[in-house]
Design goal:
By secondary structure, this protein is of the alpha/beta class. The protein has one domain (9-118): Ribosomal Protein L15, Chain: K, domain 2, CATH 3.100.10. It is 42% helix and 22% strand. It is built from five helices and five strands; from the N terminus they run H-H-E-H-E-E-H-E-H-E. Strands 1, 2, 3, 4 and 5 form a five-stranded parallel β-sheet that branches. Helix 1 (9-25) packs antiparallel against helix 2 (28-37). The two termini are 22 Å apart.
Length: 120
C-alpha cells in the first residue's frame, strides 16, 4: 500500500481494512476499491442515481468508491455501497426498495467480493 496523506481518518482506516481483506481473500476487487479511494478528492467517483438506473439490473450489488448523488430516479431494487451518499440518494434508493450500505458493511458481508460490481 502506498503512503497517503489523507486527513480523513475514517478513509485511511477503510483503505487499510480493504487491503487486509484483499490479501486474505485473494480478491483483487477490494484492492481496486482501495486504490480508487486513495485518489485525490477531485478525481474520486461521483455517481448519480440515474446512472444506476440505466446500467444496473434488479438484485445487483454495486460498490461506488466515491459518492452517490441523488440526480434522477431509480426504478430498480439494488444494493449500493459507497464511501458517502447524499441525503436525496439514500431516500431514492430506499424508495425503490433498495439497500444502502457503507463499503465496510459490504466487505463484512461479502469478503470475497463475489457478484459485486464496481460502478463509476
Amino acid at each position: 500500500m502506498k503512503d497517503t496523506n489523507k486527513t480523513d481518518s475514517e478513509l485511511r482506516q477503510l483503505v487499510v481494512d480493504l487491503c487486509k481483506v484483499s490479501s486474505e481473500s485473494k480478491s483483487q476487487l477490494w484492492r481496486r476499491v482501495a486504490d480508487d479511494l486513495l485518489k485525490p478528492t477531485r478525481n474520486r467517483r461521483l455517481v448519480n442515481i440515474f446512472k444506476l438506473d440505466m446500467f444496473a439490473q434488479d438484485g445487483d450489488v454495486i460498490v461506488v468508491p466515491g459518492k452517490v448523488l441523488g440526480t434522477g430516479d431509480l426504478h430498480r431494487k439494488v444494493t449500493v455501497a459507497a464511501f458517502s451518499f447524499s441525503d436525496s440518494a439514500v431516500a431514492k434508493i430506499k424508495e425503490a426498495k433498495g439497500t444502502v450500505l457503507t463499503i465496510k458493511e459490504l466487505v463484512t458481508k461479502n469478503p470475497s467480493g463475489k457478484d459485486v460490481r464496481v460502478f463509476g
